[in-house]
Design brief:
mainly alpha, two-stranded antiparallel ribbon, Na+/H+ antiporter like fold
Amino acid sequence: MDFGKVLAETFTNMSIISAITSTIFIILLGFILRKRNIFTAQFGKVLTKVVLSVSLPALAFNSFMAPIDQKTLRQGINVLIFGIVVYIVLIFVTKLMYLRYPKEKGDVLSVLTTFGSTTFFGIPIVSAIYGVKGAMYASIFNIGYRIFLYSYAYIKMSGLEMDKKNIKKMFLNPIVIATFLGLFLWILQPYMPQVSAMNVATQKMSQVAFYRIDQTALWLYKPLTYLAGLASPLAWLAIGSTLGEITFKDAASDKTSWYYTAMKVIVVPAINLVLLLILTVTHILPVDQVALATILIMMATPTAAVASSYAIGFDREAIMASNASLLSTIGAVVMMPIWIVIISIINATGLF
């Protein structure tokens, strides 16, 4: 294999380069606008609410408005299974990373390492590079993430039993509703009443399920498409605005946060890569190139906002959690292009 050729193809792939530069430039723009007080302290939070309650649900739902075939269905099931199993693995493995720390601090670091910002940071990048298919896999992968984030992470950080409020958050979250609704509609479409519709891409008539609004109701699909398109830029602006709130000098003086960042954006995705390689080669749980890339990008994300909020809200190493969130976000921005290059090299081997 010619690594030079692979690198050249990666760095001349405009979809990859434009996704990386868009991420960095728009995050930087949000940072500058916050530093200049054009964005207020509350503005980043407002953007976050818009993204989480409107744009990402629209993106999740729209990603399932696609034809179904056995190969994609199998991949989706494999991604779902892996997305559940890997969090069980990480819950135990991340504890080993922090054995030299006091138990309470180690527990907090373990939770922060297990749960990344897959929704807010990962999905926009995946959808920008890998399109609708990547967004679909990302939404399916996040099912396991949300199950453990609102159960295990909450119990571990609060020291309390699971309460009704968190169960409600888990199942009534707009993104979860949109994901499950889209997933069920996607799977059931061969068994639903079919109608003739003009395929916008091919300009040919085809038979589709009556609820395939991308073909049967463009007047409804288009508004959702515009809302979904806001997810990436608004999320990146909010990330930049949040970074503008924290003093880098204070965060950089915390050695623990540097160690955590290395574990979060380098070691955790590497663990996922090894597991996926083993499962694919042995044909136990094989994934294709897009699924591999989606999972690695999702796992190379910085601290999850919810996990960080748990630490702050329950006063569990709150300052360290804030520092770790800042440094891991910067680390993720630096490492994301590197991981994308690694993914391109792996794909060139033909293993996936």
